[in-house]
Design a protein that fits this description.
Layout: E1 21-24, E2 30-34, E3 37-42, E4 46-51, E5 57-62, E6 68-73, E7 77-82, E8 88-94, E9 100-104, E10 109-111, H1 114-118, E11 122-125, E12 131-134, H2 136-145
Length: about 150
């Protein structure tokens, strides 16, 4: 890589595989790259690796404020990440009906039609490593109370 003035940057030795997508932030001080996970880089080194489970990264785009970026994945999923923490802020998924549903990082439905909600189940892992399947109404109650049904 080179700076805008044509001088070379040091090689990024942490890069160990090919990437399917790359996007610079708006002041060209950081970039995100991805294939089966996402990496955030500054001009000198790798800052953070964000593991993903939504298939191959097909596209990346930074917000104008440089705090978040979007990642589009092969399985019709779009996720907004916080660039500094790597946390998912929201995720939008395509449902079998062709509708979309958008969830907060905590799993709460932010946007979707009533028919979209009818297609949802929530799988919650408990502190004792059990998994429970909850309806949307049960999940909302769990989020409010912190108590599993």
């Amino acid at each position: 890589m080179w700076r805008a003035d044509g001088t070379a940057l040091p090689p990024l030795t942490e890069a160990t595989s090919s990437e399917s997508s790359l996007a610079w932030n708006h002041d060209s001080t950081r970039f995100a790259s991805g294939r089966t996970g996402i990496r955030i880089w500054n001009l000198n080194s790798l800052e953070r690796t964000i593991p993903t489970r939504d298939g191959l990264v097909r596209g990346l785009s930074w917000s104008p404020d440089k705090q978040t970026f979007l990642a589009a994945f092969q399985y019709s999923t779009i996720v907004q990440f916080n660039a500094d923490t790597g946390e998912q802020e929201w995720v939008s998924v395509a449902l079998a009906s062709g509708e979309a549903a958008t969830f907060s990082g905590a799993g709460e439905l932010l946007h979707g039609t009533a028919t979209a909600e009818d297609q949802l189940v929530y799988i919650v892992e408990t502190n004792d490593d059990r998994q429970l399947t909850l309806s949307p109404a049960q999940f909302r109650e769990f989020v409010k109370s912190g108590e599993l049904p």
